[in-house]
Write a structure and sequence with these properties.
about 20% strand, single chain, alpha/beta, about 40% helix, 6-stranded parallel sheet, 10 helices, about 250 residues
Length: about 250
């Protein structure tokens, strides 16, 4: 049985591949929304936030023979936990993560952290369009002042409540679910009167290429927070590579 650590769009594509190859697997997610999406791509879905003990027990109970990590590139805690569990239980661990390529002409400012992003943004004037998710929006508001910000988030009750608590008002929020085309990004950035866009290096499925292209069209900088650098023991960067790995290690 394969444990697929999910919660991303790419993990759904991985689930489709595993289903097509009739490989036994279970998908883990941490939210109701993630469970709803995963349910359309997998028969076995578990909603849980793994701890050091619970993931070990889960792997034992479900007789897991491979941990396949397709979580968000910024989900460092679960990836670190999964790698440690694989070592402790003598299980193979495989990271699925597509690589990013950017145009050399793109108006990019690459930074390594939220703090570095804020230091750069303090040097600029004008409206800041946050496309980094809702979790960090309150910290940006605290560091930069909420009045400078416009944020794009998923349209859920919990997210909206968190943003309201952080001082955001309706006119500062684009509550909308992707995917977003270049044209739609252009329209949203223009409507917000954005002078700069902030995003995370979350991969092609996260829409980063379309954001960068929209910034290029508008002639505004795009601040990209690099994904954490982690020492994954083994990585595949495409569904073809994943399929080849599974064929080579056919005990699942």
């Amino acid at each position: 049985m394969i444990l697929l650590l999910g919660g991303t769009t790419e993990s759904l594509a991985v689930a489709d591949l595993l289903s097509a190859q009739q490989r036994p697997f279970v998908v883990s997610v941490i939210s109701d929304y993630g469970a709803e999406l995963a349910g359309h791509h997998a028969k076995n879905v578990v909603k849980t936030t793994f701890t050091e003990e619970s993931i070990r027990q889960f792997c034992r109970d479900q007789q897991i023979s491979l941990i396949l990590d397709a979580t968000h590139p910024f989900a460092r805690v679960i990836s670190q936990l999964a790698m440690a569990t694989a070592v402790d239980l003598d299980l193979p661990y495989l990271r699925f993560e597509r690589q990013n390529t950017y145009s050399k002409d793109a108006p990019l400012k690459m930074v390594d952290s939220l703090t570095a992003a804020c230091d750069y943004l303090k040097e600029l004037t004008g409206k800041i369009y946050l496309s980094t998710g809702s979790k960090t929006a309150p910290e940006y508001a605290q560091r930069l002042g909420v009045s400078r910000l416009h944020v794009r988030v998923l349209p859920t009750t919990r997210v909206m409540a968190n943003l309201t608590d952080a001082g955001f008002i309706a006119s500062q929020i684009d509550a909308i679910q992707g995917p977003f085309s270049v044209a739609l990004n252009v329209d949203l950035f223009k409507h917000a009167n954005a002078a700069v866009v902030v995003t995370k290096e979350s991969g092609r499925q996260g829409g980063i290429q379309e954001k960068i292209a929209a910034c290029a069209q508008l002639g505004i900088p795009c601040v990209v927070i690099r994904r954490p650098q982690m020492a994954y023991p083994q990585v595949v960067a495409s569904l073809d590579e994943l399929s080849a790995y599974l064929e080579e290690h056919n005990e699942w």
